[in-house]
Amino acid sequence: MGHNQGSPPYRIMRIFFKQFVTLIKVALALLFLGGLSYYIIDKIQEKNNLMDIEEYSPKSTLVNKETPVFRSKYPFVDVHNHQFDMPVKDLKKLTAEMDSLNMGFMINLSGFRGLYLRKSLENIRENAPNRFGLFLNVDFEAIDEADFQETQVALIDSAVAAGVLGLKVYKSLGLTSRDSSGNRIAIDDPRLDPIWKACGDHKIPVLIHSGEPASFWQPKDKYNERWLELRQKPGRYRDPELNPSFEEILLEQHAVFKKHPHTLFINAHLGWMGNDLDRLGAHLDAYPNVRTEIGAVLAELGRQPKRARQFFIDYQDRILFGKDSYNVSEYYTYFRVLETDDEYFEYYRKRHAHWRMYGLSLPDTVLQKLYYKNALELFPSIDKTLFNP
Fold first, then answer.
1. What is the DSSP string of 155-211?
2. Quick one: 110 and 154 in the same domain?
3. Whole-number Cα distances in Å, 380 to 106, 169, 372
4. 83 and 42 in one domain?
5. Do 145 and 238 reside in the same domain of the chain?
6. Contact by Cβ (8 Å): 94, 127
7. Three-state DSSP state, 85
8. Angle 107-108-114 (CA atoms, 0-180°, nearest 5)?
9. Domains in the chain, number
10. Are residues 94 and 40 in the same domain?
11. Among 152, 161, 158, 222, residue whose Cα is nearest residue 193
């Protein structure tokens, strides 16, 4: 026997249907109002010539000399590169790109360890044995394991025997790496001393990235010159309430340099002191076992060409060429800043530099040291014939 339309199931269905129709009407109304509001705001901005800073990309009307450089003047070693797929990388294609740039040798800092490292070494040996070097990465978060120190030293021993050129320390140490109790692992934690000593014993450098640009700790307001980067990459902000300070990170890193004078350290990214070259110079003076490199901090140098040029001359034996993230066209800006005397030209990434670049016009003797001579001293196994005139 059927139910009539006044029965409870039908009443419930009618109520549900009416509510569903109402929700659809509200949703459509909200979409309409949202679209209308967006349209009105867009027209108001257009009328009043308003735009977001990310949209504003003025083209300079300055008439000046332009010297595009697509190939470095001298062959170079890139000591700071990341190829995260090295075990399966098509090295034929990569070396062709390197040749176009005049890159003689690339050091991939992301060598990791274990099977990944072994497969990376195999790929290099089989396909481009004289063009690539690898750095090892250790697991600092295993610090509380009973055999941590012995295991890490044995790992370094075996990696060096296999042909690894150095140890890369990521910024996670000192910032986010935690021990088994959830405590931050300080860069100068004494439990790590055997690692630094082992690298010194093997005469391999430690390329260490500690901290971030100091602006990442500053308020995210209109006065912060890295505001755009913090907007686009909010995870890079270092809340002072939750993180060690910028100065604390540097203090821990420098304490390691002082404690291990027989280990050579490459302080990555100009040690995040590229905006204060007097401080960086004093740092290099204080620690003869430290070198530095220019990966991802070209924008700091290109905005202070006179001071930066003098810094390169004064510390020409202590600076290495590095790029960091791999992108062929971005090398062109590096070459132009380092080699030419061009003025007021664009950098390749707005969030790193909303200012313009100026060429340093480095002397040839300084360029040669920066591009390859300093690296060949640190890594004597590199094929020197790659850098013959």
1. HHHHHHHHT--EEEE-TTTTTT-B-TTS-B--TT-GGGHHHHHHHHHHT--EEE--S
2. yes
3. 14, 21, 11
4. no
5. yes
6. no
7. coil
8. 130
9. 2
10. no
11. 152
Give me the residue label for tokens 């300080």.
186
Give the whole-angstrom CA distance, residue 298 versus residue 330: 11
Q: Give residue for tokens 């640009």.
A: 213
Q: Widest CA span of the chain, in angstroms? A: 101
Q: Which two tokens stand for residue 202?
A: 């093997």
Would you state the structure tokens that stand for residue 96, as one six-digit string? 């062709």
DSSP 56: -
CA distances (Å), 204 to each of 72, 148, 261, 292, 368, in order?
A: 27, 20, 13, 15, 22
Residues 227 and 314 in one domain: yes
Contact 356, 347 (CB under 8 A): yes
Query: Whole domain around residue 300: which residue ranges?
Result: 76-387
| CATH code: domain of residue 154 | 3.20.20.140
Each residue's pLDDT, cut to its tens digit, for the chain (389 residues) gives 445 555 666 666 666 667 767 777 777 877 777 777 766 666 665 666 678 888 888 889 999 999 999 999 999 999 999 999 999 999 999 999 999 999 999 999 999 999 999 999 999 999 999 999 999 999 999 999 999 999 999 999 999 999 999 999 999 999 999 999 999 999 999 999 999 999 999 999 999 999 999 999 999 999 999 999 999 999 999 999 999 999 999 999 999 999 999 999 999 999 999 999 999 999 999 999 999 999 999 999 999 999 999 999 999 999 999 999 999 999 999 999 999 999 999 999 999 988 999 999 999 999 999 999 999 999 999 999 999 86
